[in-house]
TrEMBL record:
<dbReference type="GO" id="GO:0006412">
    <property type="term" value="P:translation"/>
</dbReference>
<dbReference type="GO" id="GO:0003735">
    <property type="term" value="F:structural constituent of ribosome"/>
</dbReference>
<dbReference type="GO" id="GO:1990904">
    <property type="term" value="C:ribonucleoprotein complex"/>
</dbReference>
<dbReference type="InterPro" id="IPR012678">
    <property type="entry name" value="Ribosomal_uL23/eL15/eS24_sf"/>
</dbReference>
<protein>
    <recommendedName>
        <fullName>40S ribosomal protein S24</fullName>
    </recommendedName>
</protein>
<dbReference type="InterPro" id="IPR053709">
    <property type="entry name" value="eRP_eS24_sf"/>
</dbReference>
<keyword id="KW-0689">Ribosomal protein</keyword>
<dbReference type="GO" id="GO:0005840">
    <property type="term" value="C:ribosome"/>
</dbReference>
<keyword id="KW-0687">Ribonucleoprotein</keyword>
């Protein structure tokens, strides 16, 4: 599957780039074709700056932020049972 291959290549590029500077790095929109890889990356000065600027879904995807355990549907169901 091409999408799986893209994610593997993006992970390899991400790991190699993380070896260079000691700063938070967020990569996205990767395209691969043959020996070439293209994508977009943001490098932040500190982790706090990245947490303030990056959207929460990207932080969860990168493993920096923790996802909520309970969904809204589950909360509504519990509220209806009580009422």
């Amino acid at each position: 599957n091409q999408n799986r291959l893209n994610s593997v290549i993006a992970d390899l590029v991400r790991e190699r780039l993380r070896l260079l500077p000691q700063s938070p790095l967020y990569l996205s929109k990767f395209r691969t074709a043959g020996p070439h890889s293209r994508g977009f990356g943001l490098v932040y000065d500190t982790k706090e700056a990245a947490m303030a600027c990056e959207p929460s879904y990207k932080l969860r995807k990168m493993g920096v932020a923790v996802a909520k355990q309970d969904s809204g549907k589950k909360k509504n169901k519990a509220a209806k049972k009580i009422a």
